[in-house]
Structures are given as C-alpha cells and as structure tokens.
Design goal:
The chain is an alpha/beta fold. Helices cover 31% and strands 16% of the residues. It has an eight-stranded mixed beta sheet, with helices on both faces. A four-stranded antiparallel beta sheet has the order 9-10-11-14, with helices on one face. The protein has a two-stranded antiparallel sheet with strand order 12-13.
Amino acid sequence: MKINLFRTILVLITIVFSSCTEKIKEVRNNKVDKPNIILFVADDHGLDALGAYGNTVIKTPNLDKLAKEGVKFTNAYCTSASCAASRSVILSGQFGHATGSYGHVHDYHHFSTYDSVKSLPVLLEKAGYETARIGKYHVAPEKVYHFNTILEADPRNTVEMAEQCANVLKSDKPFFLYFCTDDPHRGQPFTPDPWDAPNTFGNKKEGYKNVNAINYNPEDILVPEFLPDTKQSREEIAEYYQSISRIDQGFGKLMKMLQDTGKANNTIVFYISDNGMAFPGAKTTVHEPGIKLPCIIKDPRNKTKGTTNNAMISWVDLTPTILDMAKVDYKEEAFHGKSFNTIIEEENPKGWNEIYASHTSHEITMYYPMRVVRHGNYKLIWNIAYQLEYPFASDLWASSTWQSVYRNHEEYYGPKKVSDYLYRPEFELYNLSKDPNEINNLAANNNFVEILKNLKNKLKNFQTKTQDPWMIMWSHDASLQGSGVSL
C-alpha cells in the first residue's frame, strides 16, 4: 500500500511539475511572440521632403534606410491636417468628430477627447505592454491617453530624445514607445521681424548637442507645385529641410540603440507625420499636401524589404493595425478604422481604394468644418462652412511665404488665385489622376453628375456610421441633435 501511495504521489508531482513547466514555456513564448513597437511621429512633415519619396536634395539617410528595409506606403492619409486633432485619431482609431477632438487641446482652445474612449496605450498596457512616450503629447485628457512612463528631453533634439529612451528599449516587458518630435513644426516667434525673415523651424545658430547641423541653400531646394516659387518660400523651405535632417539623425540614433539591445528583430517601427508641411495650402487644409503623408513601416517578421504599398490607408487605421500586430484581442466595431496588417506586404491589395477625412477646427477661432471622401482617383471635399472666408492658422498667416503674396497684393498663390484660396465653393470634386494639384473643380461639370452624387452618398453613409454631428448640415434634421437631456 505504501509503495502504491508513493507511486501515486510521484505521478501527481510529475504531472504538476510538467504542467508548471508548460505554463512557464507558454509565458516565455508569449513574451517572445509579443513584438515591441515604436511609433515615431514627426510634426508637420509632408511627403515633399524625404529622400525615400523622391526628394533628391534633402539628406535623410536613416529614414531612407528604413524604407529600404521595410514598406513605403504611397497613399497614406491623416484625417485632419491639424496636430492635436490628428494625434487623437492616431491613438484612438476614431475620427475626431466622434470623440470631441475637434482641434487643439492647449491654452484657450481646450478641445478634449471624451472620457469613454479607450486609447491605444491604455489597451496595450492592459495587454502587458510597457508604454512610454517622449516629446510632443498634444492630446487630452491624460487619463484617456495614459502612458506608464513619461520621458523628458528637448523635443527639437531627437538625438537627446533617443538617448533618454535607453531604459525603455531594455525593458523586460514588450514595449510600446511613442516617440514624437517637435520638428519640423515652425518655431517661435511665429511673427518674424522683419516680416520677410524666414521662420527658424526650430533651428538654432548654436545648433544642438550631438547633432550635425545640415544647412541648405535656398537656391537648391525643391519648391512643391502648390507653393509660390519666391525668395521667401525658398528660404523657409531651406529651414524646414534642416529641421527634418535633425529628425533623421535622432531616428538613426534610436535605431542604433535598438540594434545594440538585440531587440531589433522583434521590434516593429513606424515612421509617420501628423499632417503636411506648415505652409498655407498644406497644413490645416484637406488638400493633398495637407493630408497625404509619409508612412514607412519595418516589421522584421515580414520577408519583403524595400517594397511599395499603394493601398489607401488612414491614420484611423493605425490603432487597430498596431493592436493586430501586438496580438491583442479587440472588437472591430470599437474603431472607425481597420487593420491593414495582413496586406502590408502586398503592392496593390484589393479593397483598399477609399479613405475619408474630417476636419473641424485648428485653433478654436478657425472653425471651418470639411469632410472628404477619396474613392479611386476621385476626391470630393465638402466645405460645410463655405460661406466663411477660409481661416488662417496664426503661424501660417505670419509666415513670410504668405506675407510676400499678401503684402504685394499678388493675384496668385502658387497655381491658385488668392481669391480661390480664401473663398471656396461648397463642393470640390477632383480627378487626382489627371489633376493631382486639385486645380480643376469638376463639381459643377454636367459630365460628372453621377460621380458627384455617388461620392455625396458615400460621405453621408460615412457620417452616419461614425456619428458625425455635422450630418445635420445636409438637411437640418433636428432629430440629429439628440434629446438635449443629460442621462
């Protein structure tokens, strides 16, 4: 009996030990399976100023290397070309009109996301991730966009920022690092003295510690087609280029540090911008220079390298995509976007030919709601407050690029008339394959009646699906305002 009892106890011990061993293996495997994620977000960096996207003048070797090792998207869009509004979408997977993120959060603007929103860092933390942020935050409230760790550094010195991330890169847990520069946003003071002096874009004569200042000759830079080719534009773009080259050096430093930790093979890296370059005609608009942006993703688990993806993706897709990559369960209906994780390696994936944009304000004094649908080559803009003069961001109005046109009473700003820039029709319809600069508005052309009707219906369906309060402007249906009673 004693022998049998001993054998029984031995078997039970063996079973328990084996079970524990398997559990330990499972935990270890889960730890390995969870990739680290770096989401690197520049501030006001357009498609116009990256070597990987065809600019032969600007020096961005580290970002170009990322494109060679990963995937470059050619049709990536933010939903609103305004810093805070765009960042709320990046971290929530929902359009700003549905979350209360209508514009800037700082100072008297005070727009803020609803408390009920579950953001990307909160969801990743719940799934066991170490979440850390450094640099520009520009979303609110903190409890909605909470990160475990907040790192401090000069957001204009991306090398210093990278150095401050050392402990996060060495984390025992899988990490999500939200790395946000202030570059290449315009620098203070926004109003130059004299008026025609170029903005610094954060550049300093004394430079930044451990950063090699790369200066550009205004005569050599490439002026985007939507801008006037003037002395003032060229001088400002040269400063903008220098700021971007500073980003590139910090990005290179961060990648070197990541490689040294031995975690590069299990770390997914994103490079994006919140909106287009800070020049009139791009930032705060829903035209292509404002919302069509760089997006480079390196996922070392993918086999393809140096590829191009032509899918139309949106920043509203980023949160579900990152959750998908991190193997975090989520409800698809919780987000307005959808994961593009499964199509990253495809060049022309089917079903990815439509995006939407939604802009309401920038500064609180810049109320000018616009809604956009792009389907295939056609793009429709609905200027809901078209009766108003188009508003200027304070820094863009004061820019020497705009003032050179305004003070000289020039008729044109780039290829468009100043009057057309300031006073816009209710609807703008463009065929981007034939008219990439959005000059020829087809909305009133009888040959495009059906296309216009179809795109309007798509906008209405989009607004209904995403509970857009501005849906009321189609018919002034009072029922859309709700009961007016707090529950």
